[in-house]
Amino acid sequence: MRRNPVVKEISDRLIPVIVLFGLYVQFHGDFGPGGGFQAGVIVAAGVVLYTLVYGVARTQALIPPSAVRRGIALGLLLYAAVGFACILRGGRFLEYGVLGATQLGGQHLGILLIELGVGITVAAVIVAVFYAFADQRAE
Questions:
Q1: How many domains are there within the chain?
Q2: What is the Cα–Cα distance from 24 to 78, expressed in whole angstroms?
Q3: pLDDT > 90: what percent of the chain?
Q4: Contact predicate 78/116, CB 8 Å
Q5: What are the CA-CA distances from residue 98 to residues 77, 81, 92, 101 (Å)?
Q6: pLDDT confidence of 137, banded at 50, 70, 90?
Q7: Are 68 and 134 in contact (CB under 8 A)?
Q8: DSSP readout, 15-55?
Q9: pLDDT (tens digit, 9 = 90+) per residue, 7-51?
């Protein structure tokens, strides 16, 4: 397959912007539209674009499937850890207010951590599914 140099150059410039926008959506999500799910999809779209331009082998060398599986587990563990931290601090599961010195501070911290866990999990799951389909196609 012949690589198009225009697509490669445009992708090289767009992929960092896509990932940066994903991080913006991730960390701005508790102040406006966005959050973990949207950010995870945006970051995964950057990985998919990289894979389409450079190939599965190069992408898997950069982001190994084992790292993707660890990302799925890390996101889920972060989500659960926030819930159990709320219980240990005297609240109910995912009652964020008990996490901070003030109710508002605790809610902000809890939502930020939950959304981060969701973002990591969503990005990792989408990349894992893409890897699975790309590996089947390669066979």
A1: 1
A2: 20
A3: 76
A4: yes
A5: 19, 14, 9, 8
A6: low
A7: no
A8: HHHHHHHHHHHHHHTTTSS--HHHHHHHHHHHHHHHHHHH-
A9: 899 999 999 999 999 999 998 876 777 789 999 999 999 999 999
Radius of gyration of the chain (CA): 18
Q: How far is CA 22 from the centre of its chain?
A: 8
Domain residues for the domain of 102 are: 5-138
Mean of the pLDDT values across residues 91-120? Answer: 92
Pair of tokens at residue 16: 């960092």
What stretch of H or E contains 122?
A: helix 103-138
Give the amino acid at 32: G
* Pairwise CA distance, residues 108 & 124, whole Å: 24
The residue type found at 3 is R
Tokens found for residue 24 = 């913006």
- Global pTM reads 0.89
Helix axes 103-138, 65-88, angle to 10 degrees: 160
How many Cα atoms within 13 Å fall on the side-chain side of residue 23? 5
